[in-house]
Specification:
By secondary structure, the protein is mainly β. The chain has 4 helices and 29 strands. The radius of gyration is 31 Å and the shape is elongated.
Length: 383
C-alpha cells in the first residue's frame, strides 16, 4: 500500500513547478520552482525585490538567500510519503510573501520477476521502479550485479555441478531494500528426475456424492522419451506430454490429452480443472508445474498452475472413454480427480509442504460436484 501511495504522489505532484503556490502580499514572485525530488535537491524562488529575511516552517528545509533569490534545499526524503512546507520571503518587516514547497516520497520496489538462467550461465536485465538512487547492497557469490539507469544487470557464472541452485541480488535505496531472486537450472541436469506427486484425492460414493477429500501421494518421473518431455505416473500408468520453458522453469501440458488406458479397453483423458470444477475440454486450457528451490531445505519442488476457461487451474480430472474423443457417446465416467497437485523431491518434504485445502475450498468443491452431470455413476464398474 505504501508503495502504491508513493507512486500516486509521484504523478500527482508533477505539475508543482509553477507559480500557483505563491501568494502575493507585496513581494511579487517572478519564478518559483518548488517541487524537490525524493533524492534531494533545492527549490528556487525569485522575487522582484532584494530579500532581507527568508525561512522555512519545517526543519527539513534549509533556506539560503542570494539577493532576490532564495534557495530551499532538502536532503533525501527516506519516507514513502511526500512532505510539504512553506517558505516565508521578506523584503522588509511588512513586505513579504509565502511560497509552498513539496518533496516527493521515495518510490522503490522490484516487481519484474525472478531471473532464470541455464547452467552454462548468462546475463539478464531487469527494470526497477524508483525515483531516487539505488544500488546493489549484496549478491550471491556466483552472481555479479550492477545498476545502470533504471535497471539492474545480472551476470550469472556457469554452474559446475549442474544441480539447481537459487541465489539473490539485494537492492537498496535509502532505508529500503528489495530482493531479486536468481535461479539456475537446465532440464537434463537439474529438472529431469524422480519426484513425489502429492495431491488431494476426491473420492466419490455410489450416488456420485463426494465421500471424502484426502491427502495422497504417488511417485512421478520427469524425463525425455522419443523427443517428448513427459511426466510419468507409474502407479496409474499415466504419461503426460509437456513442453518445457527454460525461462520460467515450467512444464506445461495441454488439457484434453490422452494419458493412458484402463484394462487396455478404455482411454484416459486428462483435463485441467478450475476451482468451480469446470474442465478444459480443449487444448486452449492447460496445466503447469513451475519449479523452485525451498530456501530452508534446498529441495526442489514444483507448484501447480495453469488456465481453465480464463480461471486458474486448481487440479486435474481423469476421464475414461470407450473410444477416441471426448464425446457423449464415448464418455464412460471419471476415473480420478486430483486437486492442488505438487511435485516434490522427497516424501517427507512433500507431506510438510503440501498446501492444505481450506474448509471453504472443500465446501465449494462438494457443492460444485453435486451440480455435475455425468453419463453414469462416478464409481462405475470399471473403477
Amino acid at each position: 500500500m505504501a508503495l502504491a501511495m508513493g507512486v500516486a504522489t509521484l504523478f500527482s505532484c508533477s505539475d508543482d513547478n509553477n507559480n500557483s503556490s505563491a501568494y502575493d502580499n507585496g513581494v511579487k514572485v517572478t519564478l518559483a520552482e518548488t517541487a524537490i525530488k525524493a533524492a534531494g535537491g533545492a527549490a528556487t524562488i525569485e522575487v522582484d525585490k532584494p530579500v532581507t529575511t527568508a525561512y522555512s516552517t519545517d526543519n527539513w528545509l534549509k533556506v539560503n538567500i542570494d539577493g532576490n533569490k532564495v534557495s530551499a534545499a532538502a536532503d533525501r526524503n527516506d519516507s514513502r510519503e511526500s512532505r510539504f512546507s512553506t517558505v516565508v520571503v521578506k523584503a522588509s518587516d511588512t513586505d513579504s510573501t509565502i511560497v509552498s514547497v513539496s518533496q516527493l516520497g521515495t518510490v522503490f520496489g522490484y516487481t519484474d520477476g525472478r531471473v532464470v538462467v541455464e547452467n552454462e550461465g548468462g546475463k539478464a536485465q531487469r527494470f526497477v521502479l524508483h525515483n531516487a538512487e539505488f544500488h546493489v547492497k549484496e549478491a550471491s557469490d556466483w552472481v555479479t550485479a550492477s545498476v545502470k539507469g533504471d535497471s539492474v544487470y545480472v551476470d550469472v557464472a556457469a554452474n559446475a555441478d549442474g544441480n539447481m541452485r537459487k541465489g539473490y541480488v539485494c537492492l537498496e535505496s535509502g532505508n529500503y531494500v528489495d530482493t531479486l531472486s536468481v535461479v539456475q537450472a537446465s532440464f537434463d541436469e537439474s529438472i529431469a528426475g524422480s519426484y513425489v506427486l502429492s495431491y488431494f484425492d476426491v473420492q466419490f460414493d455410489d450416488q456420485d456424492n463426494i465421500a471424502g477429500i484426502v491427502p495422497a501421494e504417488t511417485s512421478a518421473d520427469v524425463y525425455t522419451f522419443n523427443g517428448n518431455i513427459r511426466v510419468y505416473i507409474p502407479e496409474f500408468g499415466y504419461s503426460l506430454i509437456a513442453d518445457y520453458d527454460p525461462k520460467t522453469l515450467s512444464l506445461s501440458f495441454k488439457s484434453a490429452q490422452i494419458v493412458g488406458t484402463i484394462f487396455n479397453m478404455y482411454w484416459v483423458y486428462e483435463l485441467a480443472t478450475n476451482a468451480d470444477l469446470e474442465m478444459g475440454v480443449t487444448s486452449d486450457s492447460y496445466s503447469t508445474f513451475t519449479f523452485d528451490l525451498d530456501k530452508d531445505t534446498n529441495k526442489k519442488y514444483a507448484t501447480f498452475g495453469g488456465n481453465v476457461n480464463g480461471a486458474d487451474a486448481f487440479g486435474l480430472t481423469f476421464f475414461a472413454t470407450s473410444g477416441i474423443g471426448l464425446t457423449a457417446d464415448n464418455l464412460v465416467g471419471i476415473s480420478r480427480m486430483w486437486l492442488l497437485p505438487q511435485l516434490d523431491e522427497d516424501t517427507f518434504y512433500a507431506a510438510a509442504k503440501r498446501k492444505m485445502m481450506s474448509p471453504a475450498q472443500i465446501s465449494r468443491v462438494k457443492s460444485m460436484a453435486k451440480a455435475m452431470m455425468f453419463k453414469q455413476h462416478l464409481s462405475g464398474k470399471i473403477f
